[in-house]
Amino acid sequence: MGAGASAARGGCRAGLAWRLSRCGSSAAEAPATKAEDDSFLQWFLLLIPVTAFGLGTWQVQRRKWKLNLIAELESRIMAEPVPLPADPMELKTLEYRPVKVRGHFDHSKELYMMPRTLVDPAREAQEAGRLTSSVQSGAYVITPFHCTDLGVTILVNRGFVPRKKVNPDTRRKGQIEGEVDLVGMVRLTETRKPFVPENNPERNHWHYRDLDAMAKLTGADPIFIDADFKSTVPGGPIGGQTRVTLRNEHLQYILTWYGLCAATSYLWFKKFMRRTPGL
Question: What is the pTM of this model?
Answer without folding.
Answer: 0.71
